[in-house]
Amino acid sequence: MILLQTKINSLIGDLYLVASEKGLKGVYWQKQPYQFHDYKNEKINYILSQTEKQLSEYFSGHRREFNLDLDIVGTPFQKKVWNQLLKIPYGTTFSYLEISKQIDNEKAFRAVGNANGKNPFSIIIPCHRVIASDGSLGGYAGGVDRKIKLLNLEKNRACL
């Protein structure tokens, strides 16, 4: 399988976009452990150009959800969690416990957190919108500072 990678600049740091011929494989922050370091080909295909366009629209406040073909690889549980994350409205947050209840597995809130942490589609599948039940932010692959910036970006534009 041929994978293509490109780097884009965003308001909150560089992002690496990785795509196969089937769809987007991931959106990764610099130094994120899941990043495809071995793929240096920066040839842009339609999937990468659409991802870059839609992310630019998101950061400028003109896009609240994404319409991209995703080439998702994960366990059935991870895919179930990631699908549920797509239902979190722009500008809002849900707790790991709330997500576990929504997927009919209330006791799996730690596993939800684990699946959330393995989400390869930063921003696209909005894992940054998931927080702890006590209101604390929890973790984020891009770092808590970026999570705060993403949540503030959405909060400030949600009422527009």
Automatic annotation (TrEMBL):
Source species of the chain: Silvanigrella paludirubra
- Stated role: Involved in the cellular defense against the biological effects of O6-methylguanine (O6-MeG) and O4-methylthymine (O4-MeT) in DNA. Repairs the methylated nucleobase in DNA by stoichiometrically transferring the methyl group to a cysteine residue in the enzyme. This is a suicide reaction: the enzyme is irreversibly inactivated.
Q: Which GO terms describe its biological process?
A: DNA alkylation repair; methylation
Which residue ranges does UniProt annotate as crossing the membrane?
A: none
The catalytic residues are 127 (nucleophile)
NCBIfam families the record matches: ogt (TIGR00589)
Q: Which top class of enzyme applies to this chain?
A: transferase
> What GO molecular-function term can you cite, just one?
methylated-DNA-[protein]-cysteine S-methyltransferase activity
Methylated-DNA-[protein]-cysteine S-methyltransferase DNA binding domain location is 76-155
Q: Which domain of life is it from?
A: Bacteria
Question: Under which name does UniProt file this protein?
Answer: Methylated-DNA--protein-cysteine methyltransferase
Q: Which InterPro entries match?
A: MethylDNA_cys_MeTrfase_AS (IPR001497), MethylDNA_cys_MeTrfase_DNA-bd (IPR014048), MethylDNA_cys_MeTrfase_DNAb (IPR036217), MethylG_MeTrfase_N (IPR008332), MGMT (IPR023546), MGMT_N_sf (IPR036631), WH-like_DNA-bd_sf (IPR036388)
SUPFAM superfamilies linked to this entry: Methylated DNA-protein cysteine methyltransferase domain, Methylated DNA-protein cysteine methyltransferase, C-terminal domain
Q: Which UniProt keywords apply?
A: Cytoplasm, DNA damage, DNA repair, Methyltransferase, Transferase
